UniProtKB/TrEMBL annotation:
GO terms for molecular function: histidinol-phosphatase activity. Its EC number is 3.1.3.15. Keywords: Amino-acid biosynthesis, Histidine biosynthesis, Hydrolase. InterPro entries: Histidinol_P_phosphatase_HisJ (IPR010140), PHP_dom (IPR004013), Pol/histidinol_Pase-like (IPR016195). This is histidinol-phosphatase. Belongs to the PHP hydrolase family. HisK subfamily. Residues 1-175 form the PHP domain. It catalyses: L-histidinol phosphate + H2O = L-histidinol + phosphate. Pathway: Amino-acid biosynthesis; L-histidine biosynthesis; L-histidine from 5-phospho-alpha-D-ribose 1-diphosphate: step 8/9. One of its GO terms (cellular component) is cytoplasm. It is an enzyme of class 3 (hydrolase). It comes from Haloprofundus marisrubri. One of its GO terms (biological process) is L-histidine biosynthetic process.
Length: 238
């Protein structure tokens, strides 16, 4: 990943592995099943990052992407205060215990239930931004990736999200996690993006890369997108 970032001409890169700090039994079991154990292993990853700093002409940030649920705010705050990451990304990935990407689960629901799930998603996004727990909010209209939930977002949802960012220190990212795959778009989608720009909300760059190849392929798309909308990325650090 560092070689890919260096080859792409980046000045800095942040590693923000997924993490869940919830003490709820359901959440802990799911975390163990998926192997998302950064809450326990981050000191070893930090040591690995430190050992590579002199090898690459990059500024390397030790970051984290936290699963957010309003019920877990106390746990998240305690973990972040203790762990001391360079920055934290917050993301909403689950609705009723199910990953937002799971098309089959949501496709089997009625339209009224699908709308309720999307309502719940945006309620959680607004709570995430209002919590002030994170420097960055990830893919803030993630439900658009799922065909079963796509199209249920309303102007009211977007207004609430834009207002939350306008009053918060938390910055949304322009996320390229599905721009070269079946979804084919960045987050946030144009209607929400335009509303955020009207509110003078800034953005960071998020490749959402899980493999070096993804970073190489997605970065040019992101740079073109920032240029098209005349957006100067927010710099979290001097």
């Amino acid at each position: 990943m560092l070689r890919a970032a260096e080859d792409a001409g980046l000045d800095a890169v942040g590693f923000a592995d997924h993490c869940n700090a919830s003490s709820r039994e359901e959440a802990r079991e799911r975390t163990y099943e998926l192997g998302f154990n950064l809450d326990q292993t981050y000191p070893r990853r930090r040591a690995a990052i430190d050992s590579l700093r002199e090898e690459f002409d990059l500024r390397i940030f030790d970051a984290v992407e936290m699963d957010y649920d309003p019920r877990d705010e106390t746990d998240i705050r305690a973990f972040l205060d203790d762990a001391g990451f360079d920055y934290a990304v917050g993301s909403v990935h689950r609705l009723e215990g199910t990953n937002v990407h799971t098309e089959g689960f949501f496709a089997a629901k009625s339209e009224a239930e699908q709308q309720a799930y999307v309502d719940d998603y945006f309620d959680k996004v607004v709570s995430l931004v209002d919590s002030e727990l994170f420097e960055i909010a990830a893919h803030v209209d993630l439900v658009e990736r799922n065909p079963a939930l796509r199209g249920y977002a309303t102007a009211d949802h977007y207004e609430r999200v834009a207002s939350a960012f306008e009053r918060s220190r938390t910055v949304p990212e322009i996320n390229a996690g599905r721009v070269l795959r079946e979804y084919g778009e960045v987050h946030p989608s144009p209607p929400l993006l335009e509303l955020l720009l009207e509110r003078d909300v800034g953005f960071t760059v998020g490749t959402d890369s899980h493999r070096p190849r993804e970073l190489r392929e997605r970065l040019p798309v992101l740079l073109d997108y920032f240029e098209e909308y005349e957006i100067d990325p927010v710099r979290l650090f001097d």
